[in-house]
Amino acid sequence: MSGPAVALTVAGSDSGGGAGLQADLHTFAAFGVHGTTAVTAVTVQNTVGVTGVHEIPPQIVADQIGAVVEDLRPTAVKTGMLASAPIIEAIGAAFRQHGIGRGGTIPLVLDPVCASMHGDPLLEPDALDALRGLFALATVVTPNLDETQLLVGTRDQRDAARALLALGAEHALVKGGHGTGPRSRDLLTDGVTEIWLDAERIETGNTHGSGDTLAAATAARLAGGDSLPDAVRAAKRYVTRAVATSYSVGAGHGPVGHPPADEPVRASAAGDEVVAARAGATP
Ligand SMILES: Nc1ncnc2c1ncn2[C@@H]1O[C@H](COP(=O)(O)OP(=O)(O)O)[C@@H](O)[C@H]1O
Ligand SMILES: Cc1ncc(COP(=O)(O)O)c(N)n1
């Protein structure tokens, strides 16, 4: 007996369907992974911008994480919009309790979302310290250059990676996606090895949800048992296809596409063990 690998996203809802947990669920599905959610906030959002945010009570966010982990046993977790310091603190406590992130058994992809691509805030200004505090749990933290500027005060990819690792992340993936050159170059490092992930820059304004898709694809591959570098390499190949298949909808920035993955996750060994244990069999 085996089922699909399970991944959990802890993220906000984008009513426009382009980013946030909607992009994460599309990505998990494209990889054949069963997606679960802990919703942190409901945004009032379309392709033009964000006009409202309703935060979910911190305890309800933590309870969603607990309910998912105890029953569905995700083998990777991804975070996106976390909204506020009290929500982040509740998430950190839940992660530690359930073995999510460094020191636990479930890898954590932490996308430190601070604003939407329209420049609308998705994190309260006084929550930056709380967000930095969560980095010590991250298997990988995946900021863009606007986020590195806010979080560690630099837009230099190498300097930013160094500062993120100093805050406790195991790996840093510093994205170069918002530059203007002909290539989209992201830096992945654990402080010892540097891997440059290089792809053609595709000329389009329809990149809504690209960052969520990269982080969710990484979590999907991790859920299937990939090493972190292999998961990130596969995710970068996938997000490049996602940008290539982006489309126009609405009056503003359209979303990236979510074509079926070339490198899907068929099932997870951990998932098999859980199913076997539930059935009373010896795994
Ligand atoms: N126009 C583009 N062409 C190709 N890849 C892109 C493009 N825009 C973004 N990417 C890639 O998509 C991923 C997400 O990057 P980015 O858009 O910077 O994230 P975020 O949504 O967090 O701002 C990165 O790997 C980046 O290099
Ligand atoms: C709920 C939510 N989460 C994340 C993003 C970031 O995505 P983008 O940078 O593409 O706007 C967003 N706009 N909304």
From TrEMBL:
<dbReference type="InterPro" id="IPR004399">
    <property type="entry name" value="HMP/HMP-P_kinase_dom"/>
</dbReference>
<protein>
    <submittedName>
        <fullName>Bifunctional hydroxymethylpyrimidine kinase/phosphomethylpyrimidine kinase</fullName>
    </submittedName>
</protein>
<keyword id="KW-0418">Kinase</keyword>
<comment type="pathway">
    <text>Cofactor biosynthesis; thiamine diphosphate biosynthesis; 4-amino-2-methyl-5-diphosphomethylpyrimidine from 5-amino-1-(5-phospho-D-ribosyl)imidazole: step 3/3.</text>
</comment>
<feature type="domain" description="Pyridoxamine kinase/Phosphomethylpyrimidine kinase">
    <location>
        <begin position="14"/>
        <end position="256"/>
    </location>
</feature>
<keyword id="KW-0808">Transferase</keyword>
<comment type="function">
    <text>Catalyzes the phosphorylation of hydroxymethylpyrimidine phosphate (HMP-P) to HMP-PP, and of HMP to HMP-P.</text>
</comment>
<dbReference type="Pfam" id="PF08543">
    <property type="entry name" value="Phos_pyr_kin"/>
</dbReference>
<keyword id="KW-0784">Thiamine biosynthesis</keyword>
<dbReference type="InterPro" id="IPR029056">
    <property type="entry name" value="Ribokinase-like"/>
</dbReference>
<dbReference type="InterPro" id="IPR013749">
    <property type="entry name" value="PM/HMP-P_kinase-1"/>
</dbReference>
<dbReference type="GO" id="GO:0016301">
    <property type="term" value="F:kinase activity"/>
</dbReference>
